[in-house]
Here is the input.
Amino acid sequence: MSRRLSRRALALPAALAIAVVLSGCGSGRPSASTASGSAAAGDGAKEVTVFAAASLTGTFTELGKAFEAAHPGTSVRFNFGSSATLAQQIVQGAPADVFAAASPATMKTVTDASLAGAPATFVRNKLQIAVPADNPAEVDEFEDLADARVKVALCAPQVPCGAAAVKALDAAGLKVTPVTLEQDVKATLTKVELGEVDAALVYRTDVIAAAGKVKGIAFPEADQAIHDYPIATLTEAPAGDLARRFVDLVLSRQGKDVLTKAGFETP
Amino acid sequence: MTSSASPSPDRAPSRGPDRAPSRGGPAGRRDSPRRVTGRLPWMLLVPAVLGLAFLVLPLAGLLVRAPWPTLLQRLAEPQVLQALRLSLVTASIATAVCLVLGVPLAWLLARVSFPGRRVVRALVTVPLVLPPVVGGVALLLLLGRRGLLGQWLESTFGLTLPFTSAGVVVAEAFVAMPFLVISVEGALRGADQRFEEAAATLGASRWTVFRRVTLPLIMPGIVAGAVLCWARALGEFGATITFAGNFPGTTQTMPLAVYLALETEPEAAIVLSLVLLAVSVIILASLRDRWVNTP
Here is the structure.
């Protein structure tokens, strides 16, 4: 009896512990909660749900406001996150209207599942070297990253900015041993902003967004690792025609202005 | 934990009318003949089963979707074992750190009254409510290369914590320690203080009382807390990747490997999650039988 009691009493911490292990695994994932509720209600009020790469947060928020102003009664909802995660969410049935990805590979996940129409490339992004504002390691060219005294952060090769970094390093024939391979470009940039690393390879757009806190250094090999951002409406878009109109806005003159101002190159 | 180390409650007079039932003490269990029986109330049973299903069914999802045919092949990849070893080692060291610092902290909160104790108790739980990524940033601001303490650590000892395995331990301990402190403090509050008082009247110093009476009394609470703490450390993701970074072999623990695998190969992420789960379940289950369930 007493043995059974104690066994039961202690099953609780064990069960809790397992739950805790699991909760820890997922704590870094962006929430999918914003993905719900694209089914608009009410008279004439319509909603467009846009899944967009994290690097588009600033520009797309601005374009969303412009869209709402141009189409009274509509609202644009965003789910920003890692392109790969967003693609997974769409494949698993998240109710999205538009998908703007940071790499053709992640867009391919969605088109392969026949969930999106033909994607169009709307911007290109390029890498830059980001250094802390005071540039403690005196980095001024790409070759400096190979110096053992320079602490370098790169994106993990699994994410688009990491893949681009590998491409650029290969193009220069440079061997760099980073101290960390970060999970996304924002995390990489944070390490520079806090001065934990002397240099990192991030997008030009991120350097511009963090102006004042980091300094950007352009390098010629970045041209070898330019990558495209595709955008597409989803075939089962609940917003239908409105989804297409949002894509039109992104591809329009106005959209291009907003995007180039943030440091993107337009094709 | 063993009865020889405890203040022999078996020999205490069991007929005394003033004898309060000591929580978890053997005598307390022995004199409980009025066991609650009867039909299980559905008001408890239904939510209990639902709760269990809620916790367990997502795991079933992992098991169903696991790529069983290629499982062994994926497990044999050196990066997996490397990450697993790093996870187990850092989580265990972090738990040891938490025990050394957390048990005295719990004792302070439970046994010593000082002004602002409530505030201190609330502060201890801060890492529980703080998003782990924020915890990681906070650690960087304190212990990073330009942090308040980190600056001094580097200039004086040439020591930098970010991007090292020691940094992983720091991040894990920061996030996991509240679990230990809360659990041990609860045990301390539940323990019968009269054993401690008796020891004190016999001339034992506070340190001796703690070591010879309190510690054995609350050992189940400490073990339960350590188990929770270890599990939390093992699954730690946000603070680790923010503070210690992610580099295979030095700072890439299993949860970090899982997250990055998810970017490109969801199937590999499932395999890694299963390994982490299996190892933690095996260790937790065997620990429970070995240390907690001694008759």
In short: Chain B touches chain A through 62 residues (CB under 8 Å).
